[in-house]
Amino acid sequence: MQSKKRCSWCNEKNSKYVEYHDNEWCRLNLDDKYLYEMLRLESFQAGLSWECVLNKREFFKKAYDNFELDKVCAYDDKKIDELLNNEKIIRNKLKIVSSVKNSIIFKNIVKEFGTFCAYLKKFSGDEIIYETGKTTNDLSDAISKDLKKRGMKFVGSTIIYSYLQAIGLIYSHEKGCFLYNRENKRSSKK
Fold it and tell me: What percent of the chain has pLDDT over 90?
């Protein structure tokens, strides 16, 4: 039996990566809890591979109280020290401290727009961008710039582009991948 052809970046020896590629990546999911979780995880990717973060995802969920926004917003120095000493997650002090501050900013955005999805749609409308071979675009640039202006860290355009792929606002399965969607292929708006 021949295996499915997947995007070139997918390490088929890692079952978590295959599961993520096949059933989650580029699938539209605009639930605020998911949007929050993925933004937290993507921010830990900076300077690392997504596979590294994905392999630690369950440990992150446990360490970050299942990504309950209100709980993370209330983290104090004791909890930050606990995270810094947790060998099962990425223990970068700047990323951990920023994760709490970024959570507070995320919560403020939700208060301002009603949902984080509504905030994202301010930039994207209801359109999904179909493109491959990029690491940034005008959409990721605009969202990154705005999040930085609001005080978020570890949200550069490349991280935001990866985030938009993860949540399905950018659909990037490669030609030849069994999930490539030729019929809906469109160029990004310029």
Answer: 91
Residue 38, C-beta contacts closer than 8 angstroms, at least 6 positions apart = 163, 166, 167
Q: Are strands 170-171 and 129-130 parallel, antiparallel or unpaired?
A: parallel
Phi-psi domain of 2 (left: phi exceeds 0; alpha: psi -120 through 50; beta: other)? beta
pLDDT tens profile 97-132: 999 999 999 999 999 999 999 999 999 998 999 999
CA distance 9 to 179: 14
**Could you tell me the CA-to-CA distances from 77 to 84, 93, 96, 112, 114 in Å, in that order?**
10, 12, 11, 27, 29
**What pTM, to 2 d.p., does this model score?**
0.93
Burial letters for 93-123: b for 16+ Cβ neighbours within 10 Å, e otherwise? eebbbbbbebbbbbbebbeeeeebbebbeeb
pLDDT (tens digit, 9 = 90+) per residue, 124-145? 998 999 999 999 999 999 999 9
- Contact yes or no for 67/107 (Cβ under 8 A): no
Separation between Cα atoms, residue 102 and residue 147, nearest integer Å: 9
Q: Name the residues annotated as catalytic.
A: 20, 42, 50
Residue with tokens 């004791």: 78
Distance CA(26)–CA(180), nearest Å, equals 10
Of all helices (H) and strands (E), which one includes residue 170? strand 170-171
**Six token digits for residue 105:** 């900013």
